[in-house]
Amino acid sequence: MSTTHDVLDTDYTINTKGTRDSREDWEQEESTVAELRRIDFTGTIWFAASIIAIGIPLAGLLSQGWRPTDLPLPAEVAWWVGSAFTFLGIAGFGWSGCPVLAWPVPVAERQKSITIRGGIGLYLAGTAISAIAILAVPAVVR
Predict the structure, then answer these.
(1) Residue 8 predicted with pLDDT over 70
(2) Does residue 40 fall inside a structural domain?
(3) I need a surface site. Which of 84, 94, 109, 138 has the fewest CB within 10 A?
């Protein structure tokens, strides 16, 4: 429980440890918590959307008998590299959407900011690399 005091137009709170926090410190912490909640929410949305966006086209390709080994070697390597980037991006979304269990709020906010931004970059780069690897090879009719 904290108590707010007004002394000479300076607002501060007494925190549970008995020390004073200025209003700016309190507002910064409140802003950090709000940002952490936003990242948790958007990380969950990105995670779900990325699974659907990858799963549907890949299921269509695989159900038609396509395999990455059907690609020529440079395109196959590009496809696997792109797939690895995509997987790491999706893992970043998953980490961003997980609840905070072990770290203080400022540390968790910093970690989740990095993982969601890195996840978006890796996901977009990976899907682009994989799609280009598939589309750059002429189709073979069986």
Answers:
(1) no
(2) yes
(3) 138
